[in-house]
Amino acid sequence: MLRSMATLLAARGRPGRPDTDRGEVQLTLPPSLSATLGCDAVGVPARHGFRLMSRLPGNGCVFADSEWWWWIVPAGSDTELRWPLPACYAADAYVPDRRPRLIHRPDSTSPYTPPIPLYLMVCQLTGVAPAWTGPGVGSRL
Q: Which value, in Å, is the radius of gyration of the alpha carbons in the chain?
């Protein structure tokens, strides 16, 4: 199941385009929320959803279906890091069409869940050490 989810999302023909043959849908934000940074989504199996939502310092829009929960994050939140399995990263918020529905709407005008706290919580949940692949940051006195 997990491999099929990753395969489904990785095998899309063109980034940013739905593949109706594979049964994808783009998560739609409420019109009152501005997504000026673009939208991607991070999904986790539903069994982890309540645990993550209750421990994150802030939640943006969260969508769910019977099998997955999806957090809206700014586009490019996968840059220079790898989200550990069982998390699934969905560019442009195209997810498998299992009729996801909005289950959490933020109090603010931003639809985003901060990606770094979400990433760290997913790493903690899965027992994977966080790893950034970008160049190291140095300091000079």
A: 15
Greatest Cα pair distance, the chain, in angstroms, is: 57
For 22, the token pair is 């594979």
Condensed to tens digits (0 to 9), the pLDDT of residues 22-78 reads 699 999 999 999 899 999 999 999 999 999 999 998 889 999 999 999 999 999 999
Element (H, E) at 21: none
Identify which of 95, 106, 99 has the alpha carbon closest to the alpha carbon of residue 18: 95
- All residues at 6 or more sequence positions from 11 whose CB lies less than 8 Å from its CB, including other chains: 19, 22
Is the pTM value of this prediction over 0.85? Answer: no
